Amino acid sequence: MNTALSSKEKIAILLLNLGPEIAADILGGFGENEIAEISDIISKMRNVNDEVSYMVLNEFKDEFQSWSKSEEIIDVIKDYRPNIVPFRYFKHLTGEEIMSILSGEHTQLIALVMSYLEPHQSAEVVGIMPDVLRLDVLNRMATSTPPPIQIIKQIDQVLEQKVVSLGDRLDTPNERKYRAIAEILNRSDSATEKTTMQRIKEEHPEIAQEIKQLMFVFEDIVTVEDKALRQMLSEIDTATIALSMKTASKEVRNKIFDNMSKRMGDMVSEEEQVLGPKPLSEVETAQKKIVDTLSKMESQGETVRIKNQDLGPMV
């Protein structure tokens, strides 16, 4: 190693020769940027030779242990890193995923997180917020004073645990790509959806199956949790429900009627009787309205579909 060391390199070597507790106390006296720089230097100094270490130790004219494993000090540094770059685990998440995790949190906390994200990512998340929440968050970002660093660290740890606990619901890069395709097909007409899926199935059947599992079509109502289905039914008018039943399978009809009150079921049945023949396009529009409502609930983090449900044959 070159003996022409900078002051921060000397500090890094000093910390490598201290116990974790003492190193932590010393680091606590530095600013955030200095801690970040020193931690980066330490991460590259796992093989500092004894000669250089002795030179630095003698320069500081103190007594130290001859050597401490650099991994121990690096662990200490990592404990401080949340203070430097909090909420770093949001970096690879989509705006929708971040919003789902922050849903229900106080606007002051949301504003704090937004202020630490990369500007483009913050803009994406804020852009999908409801108008009232967006205005409140932006106002707090502009006017609030950041809390003490230890408070930020506590918030960071709580949110990190929340992200970990939701890990099985967060998409991998491939899943995000497939989900985008699924959403595009969900918004397409039936002919486009079937033609596209058939083409993908012929060339890449395993990918087609992945996309199919991420898609949400009207017949998938049989895989919907009863609680979610009842919530959806409470938001859709009976005329739309009745119209959607025109081409519904027996399984879907039974699933829907089983989750209606007797009064609502009677109303839908009466609507069906007076509808008469309807163009297929109108029926598909009604079905799409129902599917879109369920898809929106799912994108907001609600449990909609029964896990490990057999989704049936490929289209």
Q: Give the % helix.
A: 55-70%
Tally of distinct domains: 4
CATH class of the largest domain: Mainly Alpha
Shape call? elongated
Order of helices and strands: HHHHHHHHHHHHHHHHHH
CATH architecture classification of the largest domain: Orthogonal Bundle
Average residue-wise pLDDT: 75
List keywords for this structure.
Single alpha-helices involved in coiled-coils or other helix-helix interfaces; 315 residues; disordered C terminus; 0% strand; mainly alpha; 18 helices; Annexin V, domain 1
Task: Give a structural overview.
- With 315 residues, the chain is an all-alpha fold.
- The chain folds into four domains: 7-84, Annexin V, domain 1 (Orthogonal Bundle), CATH 1.10.220; 88-168, Annexin V, domain 1 (Orthogonal Bundle); 171-215, Single alpha-helices involved in coiled-coils or other helix-helix interfaces (Up-down Bundle), CATH 1.20.5; 217-315, Flagellar motor switch protein FliG, alpha-alpha superhelical domain (Annexin V, domain 1, Orthogonal Bundle), CATH 1.10.220.
- Helix 3 (32-43) packs antiparallel against helix 5 (70-84) and helix 7 crosses helix 9.
- It is built from 18 helices and no strands.
- It has helices at residues 7-16, 20-27, 32-43, 50-60, 70-84, 95-102, 107-116, 119-127, 131-143, 149-165, 173-186, 190-203, 205-214, 226-235, 238-244, 250-258, 262-275, 280-299.
- It is 67% helix and 0% strand.
- The N and C termini lie far apart (64 Å).
